[in-house]
Amino acid sequence: MWWLSIPLYVLELHAAVGLGLYTFSLWDVHAGARARPVRESPLRVAVLIPTWNEPPEVLAPTIAAAVALQPVHETWVLDDGDRPHVARLAGDLGARYLRRSDRRHAKAGNLNHAFDVVQADVVAVLDADHVARPDFLVNTLGYFDDPRVALVQIPQDFYNLESFEHSRTAARDGFNEQSLFYRGILAGKNRWQAAFWCGTNALLRVKALREVGGVATETVTEDIHTTIRLHAKGWRTVYHNEVLARGLAAAGAGQYLLQRHRWGTGAMQVLKADNPLTAPGLTLPQRLAYAFTLLGWFDAWRSLGYLLVPVGVLLTGAVPIHAPLRSFALAFVATFTLQQLTLWLLGRGWQRPWLAILFDVVRLPSNLAATMTLFGRRTTQFQVTPKGRTGERPRRTPAPRILSALVGVSGLTAVWFVATVAGRTPLHYGVRAAAFVAAGWLAFNLHRRPIHQCGSDATTH
Fold it and tell me: Taking the domains of the chain in order of start, what are their residue ranges?
């Protein structure tokens, strides 16, 4: 049936393009030489810690670790919350304190305001919950020996190993849902001069920022947006693939989905404001690298399609692929095996197939909503991901309606299939093999039960 065959063909074509961009991005994750360690630097260095509403127990270790860094530098706490107790905390720990009279443009505006006050050649930006290791500056400042380098980005890693994002093996290997991105994908962008700022754990050359008008304020993902402008002006960026700071991952499903929705919405805003596919000044490899990151948010529509195709087959008896069962089975098994082997080999151990599939479904509601903003005109405000004590148990979050609906529809479809096979419905499956394959596909989707992932502990499912 064409009405089912064509959508399935489009889904498979989208997957093939995604696999091609994945291969391009991860082909070489070891490009670029490490910088020399720097114990003394002629550069004026400042560590900036933007904050709004984070509690003192989150801020204190971040400030204390930043103050203790070598070489000589200043540490500034940029408080958008205008809180006297934060000013006292900063002073007690040896940091300087800066507030502003308004909160325009949220974090981006906070940083831009600081550039008018802080005298520095290079600034390191740490989110309020990211605690730097003692060698954070020592291992990264050397990259700025190259006067063309505007940005050095470092991986994000997390110390709350019981978070929603962490796997059951996290206590042993620290693996979380973002590991592939930070330890593999971003490292691969070095080869193409396409590594970008990820908001925290980064060092930036102030001169380069001033050349592009400061931190971009037109989107809620000011980091990648600013990097596009830096690349368009010919500045170089570096990804230093060594964990030199750890922060707080999203503790529960609510925080996780809020964060992903903000990131996805920002990606759509970037596509409208400074689309790297068409913006002047970028190289072709940079455009492809950005395409992999920004267009990846549309993978949610592919996931939705793969959840609905077996429903369409079983409810209508339509057959999207006409082929002998043996030929289809051989082609499918060979293709699927090669795809998974490719993902695993290129992922260098950071790609976990089961968790990847699981989180594709978990973040489906937020990603679908985010991509829809590409076609809207509403202005999205920056929302800080809530952070609290690491010992707090995350609250159970109600499952998003779309996931509940998908589980309900899939369950009813399974009942319909059983009833049809038993001759209890007016439908007759003309190609019974296709129906049984679709039933197996449906069972696999139901087995994932994404609705349960919105509970308090993702690592138990």
Answer: 2-25+298-460, 34-295
